[in-house]
Specification:
Helices cover about 40% and strands about 20% of the residues. With about 425 residues, the chain is α/β, with parallel strands linked by helices. It has 4 domains: about 100 residues, Beta Barrel (OB fold (Dihydrolipoamide Acetyltransferase, E2P)); about 160 residues, Rossmann fold; about 80 residues, no CATH class; about 40 residues, no CATH class. The N and C termini lie far apart (about 115 Å).
Length: about 425
């Protein structure tokens, strides 16, 4: 085979061809389809999703996993649709998909044969915990009306964390958010989540945490399995701090959701359904203000009515028999008058203080302190015009500190604009 100009020297025998990736993919595809061909495969469904009527999912057992596709026309003829956790048998053609370099099963039929191992484990643990009272509504803690300190437990920098922060900023930005980073998937995820919840609950008082949100984005049954572990259920059950879960999509329900004080369908909904709404608080304050005004008006009307009735009573009209009533009314009136007078005196004192400060700022002494002076003639009249003084007059000039006596030797007139007076 002739070597191309840009091909490197690989030290290979000349008879060995150099294949393009697409050529190799086709060789793999023909080998798989020719030697393996059509098969019946049993396994547990996971990570299933439907796109435009086509189903994409995986089949797995305890050791292996393979991708599958069930096209829309075949799905219509099948006895069931792929569902995470279900055990099925598929009739399929083993094929290789060159654009993605993926070996998969192209299924023609799918039939259920019972629950998968994870699904069976989930159902068994649910039954056990239900019998022990883990899901009992009576033991759940009420969610605070206006939580100010909120701990969000999820994977750092995840989509769930971003959604929660955005929802909190839009719903009630005054809330103080504490982010707690945990693994939410994998072998060590469940113990880590349980340890984080226990630590948060122990420190909740010192950190002023009113509410805990345990959240995670969507995924397959395997992806969410950490939230189905007994250790997480025990940690949630032991919490004194209210806890709300928002795990996966709306259709996902984990054991953690069932034990928590409240389950939200998604991470962002866990925020919007528990944090106070700015708009709702504003409306509530307006309503309370109106109720307070109406209550005060009602109280004033009743008080006026009681005074009218008392003024017409015989006890008040007859001095001999009404002295005690009058004394009582007078005592009450004196108390109210005293309180009113005290409040009035406080207001007057404040106003006097304010006026004093104003007068001090604009009064003659303040003017003198700024370097000005006051000149008086022999009669004590203030001189404002040099024309009012004549040569030989004795004058007295008052400064900020002290006075000066002087004799007029002469005057100079300064012509000013009459309109400036």
């Amino acid at each position: 085979m002739a070597q191309r100009p840009n091909e490197p020297q690989l030290g290979l025998a000349q008879e060995e061809p150099i294949l393009e990736v697409s050529a190799l993919s086709q060789l793999i595809r023909r080998a798989l389809e020719g030697s393996v061909g059509r098969v019946l495969v049993r396994g547990e469904v996971s990570n299933s999703r439907c796109v435009s009527g086509h189903w994409y999912f995986s089949l797995k057992d305890s050791e292996s996993r393979i991708d599958c596709v069930l096209f829309r026309s075949d799905a219509a003829r099948s006895k069931c649709a792929p569902k995470d956790g279900s055990a099925v048998v598929v009739a399929a053609q083993v094929t290789h998909y060159p654009p993605q370099g993926r070996t998969q099963l192209q299924c023609s039929t799918i039939e259920p044969i019972g629950a998968g191992s994870l699904d069976a484990k989930y159902r068994a643990l649910c039954e056990e915990l239900r019998g022990l009272g883990y899901f009992d509504p009576a033991r759940k803690v009420p969610i605070p009306a206006i939580p100010m300190g909120v701990a969000i437990v999820t994977s750092a920098n995840s989509a769930a964390e971003a959604d929660c922060l955005q929802a909190a900023a839009q719903t009630f930005p005054a809330a103080r958010i504490i982010l707690v980073d945990v693994r939410v998937q994998g072998r060590d995820a469940a113990p880590g989540i349980a340890a984080a919840l226990a630590a948060i609950d122990a420190a909740a008082s010192g950190l002023r945490i009113d509410l805990v949100l345990l959240v995670r984005g969507g995924g397959s049954l395997e992806d969410l399995w950490a939230f189905n572990e007994r250790v997480v259920a025990d940690a949630i059950l032991a919490m004194r701090t209210p806890i709300v879960t928002g795990i996966g999509h709306e259709s996902d329900t984990t054991i953690a959701d069932l034990v928590a004080d409240l389950r939200a369908p998604t991470p962002s909904r866990a925020v919007t359904e528990t944090l106070a709404s700015r708009a709702a608080l504003s409306e509530e304050l307006d309503s309370l203000a109106h109720r307070l005004i109406r209550a005060w008006e009602h109280h004033a009307v009743r008080a006026h009515s009681r005074i009218e009735v008392a003024s017409r009573s015989r006890a008040l009209l007859d001095p001999a028999t009404g002295i005690e009533v009058r004394l009582s009314l007078l005592a009450q009136f004196a108390m109210r008058l005293g309180r009113g007078a005290a409040r009035a005196l406080e207001v007057v004192a404040a106003r006097v203080t304010s006026v004093e400060r104003t007068l001090e700022a604009i009064g003659p002494l303040a003017v003198l302190e700024r370097g000005y002076s006051i000149t008086l003639d022999r009669s004590g009249n203030t001189l404002r015009n040099a024309a009012d003084a004549t040569t030989g007059d004795r004058l007295r000039t008052i400064l900020a500190r002290g006075e000066i006596a002087s004799v007029v030797e002469g005057t100079t007139q300064q012509h000013s604009n009459p309109d400036s007076r």
